[in-house]
Design goal:
The protein has about 425 residues and is an alpha/beta fold. It has two domains: about 140 residues, Aspartate Aminotransferase, domain 1 (Alpha-Beta Complex), CATH 3.90.1150.10; about 260 residues, Type I PLP-dependent aspartate aminotransferase-like (Major domain) (Aspartate Aminotransferase, domain 2, 3-Layer(aba) Sandwich), CATH 3.40.640. The longest helix has 21 residues. The structure holds 4'-deoxy-4'-aminopyridoxal-5'-phosphate.
Length: about 425
């Protein structure tokens, strides 16, 4: 009896998703690919969009389109309100202290470039070090290489263990009196590893070293609280959280953003311009030169609203279940080796099959309607470290089902028959 009650109590607190119902919110999921039902397992590349987002963007252009922060007319006021409400929504999503700590950018890539150029570059000198990890996406490597080349600073790298977990001891050893900045991914896009960023931020802050977190793969799967994390910067992309492409977010602590020079010059980022000199606008506008992606921000606001209505904990629990199921069923297929088996993972299953190139595997799966990603996943240094040219990667979103994992498994069996 007691056990029954415990189970009931557990079920009451465990959030659950009505996946079949929420799939109806995503029009694209109804389409066929090559005559087969689409099984979309490439969510780490980009997520599909719910009707709430598509319709919000359509409505914005149909009823409210105007430029922001400029006109006194009604439409400009509506557009400005929509754009600024999006900022408030993002601040809440990340639990930022203030709305002005949210800068709208094109995506995680632009957010990182902004920090590299406006925060990193002025601080780094010859003899200084910048610390990243080997599991970074190229967008959290190349901007730092560029800044290091321009300043003479050295780029240091934290290695990973064979299972895809970060070598936290090596991280501690590489934090030195020369380290000026740490940039680390919250979740690896190639392996799904969730890094212990809270601990990593604590270790860096113990030495007064600021930390940028690349949250492109975490924001869709993990509840992010920038105040609890204490990170100095946090970057993510709208299109990976069920929002539109071309819009993303840089969170920065107010004191940093205020002290940083602008990244780009133009309209909206100024208070006054004479030919001799310009007085810059306040944050966040100082970093938003030119007409921003207004429809994108409003669409992102709708996406975050949708995600929060569904419940981020419920989404995370559902994806966890799918990942466990896929790990078991894909891992059992003869010749398949899972790449990345860290204890903490989010929504991503990377694997290779003996004797089969991942691209060929991806092509056979595509014929079955199953969309996965194959290649180096913009993480070539990680692939080199693991001694692999490429992997196949299935990545899950809120609308995926166990039946779709079964379709993936069947497709891999078929690829074995066709290709081996
Ligand atoms: N970081 C990580 C971990 C990513 O997975 C990605 C996108 N694949 C990016 C950064 C870059 O995001 P975007 O292309 O949207 O700027």
């Amino acid at each position: 009896m007691k056990r029954g009650n415990e189970i009931l109590a557990l079920e009451a607190i465990r959030p659950s998703l009505d996946v079949e119902r929420l799939r109806e919110d995503f029009p694209i999921l109804r389409r066929k690919v090559g005559g087969k039902s689409l099984v979309y397992l490439d969510n780490a590349a980009t997520t599909q969009k719910p009707r709430a987002v598509i319709e919000t963007i359509r409505r914005y252009y149909a009823t409210s389109n105007a430029n922001v922060h400029r006109g006194v007319h009604t439409l400009s006021d509506r557009a400005t309100r929509g754009y600024e409400e999006a900022r408030v929504r993002v601040a809440r999503f990340l639990n930022a202290r203030e709305d002005r700590e949210i800068v709208f950018v094109r995506g995680a890539t632009e957010a990182i470039n902004l920090v590299a150029q406006s925060f990193g570059r002025p601080r780094l000198r010859r003899g200084d070090e910048m610390l990243i990890t080997v599991m970074e996406h190229h967008s959290n490597i190349v901007p730092w290489q560029m800044v290091c080349a321009a300043t003479g600073a050295a780029l240091k790298v934290v290695p990973v263990h064979g299972d895809g977990e970060l070598d936290i001891v090596a991280y501690g050893e590489r934090l030195s009196h020369r380290t000026r900045l740490v940039a680390v991914t919250h979740v690896s896009n190639a392996l799904g590893t969730v890094n212990p960023i809270r601990e990593m931020i604590g270790m860096a802050h113990g030495r007064n070293i600021p930390v940028l977190v690349d949250g492109a793969q975490a924001a869709p799967h993990v509840k992010v609280d920038v105040r609890e994390l204490g990170c100095d910067f946090y970057a993510f992309s709208g299109h990976k959280v069920y929002g539109p492409t071309g819009i993303g977010v840089l969170y920065g602590k107010r004191e940093h953003l205020e002290a940083m020079p602008p990244y780009q010059g133009g309209g909206d980022m100024i208070l006054r311009v004479t030919i001799e000199r310009t007085t810059y606008n306040e944050i966040p506008y100082k970093f938003e030169a030119g007409t921003p992606n207004i429809a994108g921000a409003i669409g992102l606001c709708a996406a975050l609203g949708y995600l929060d209505d569904i419940g981020r904990e419920a989404v995370a629990a559902h994806e966890r279940e799918l990942l466990d199921y896929a790990t078991e069923t894909v891992g059992e297929i003869p010749g398949v080796r899972l790449v990345g088996t860290a204890r903490e993972k989010a929504g991503i299953l990377s694997f290779v099959m003996e004797g089969v190139h991942p691209h060929d595997l991806g092509t056979v799966l595509d014929h079955e309607g199953v969309a996965i990603r194959t290649g180096h996943h913009c993480a070539m240094p990680l692939m080199d470290a693991l001694g692999l040219p490429a992997t196949a990667r299935a990545s899950f979103g809120m609308y995926n089902t166990r039946a779709e994992v079964d379709a993936l498994v069947e497709g891999i069996w078929k690829a074995r028959e066709v290709l081996l």
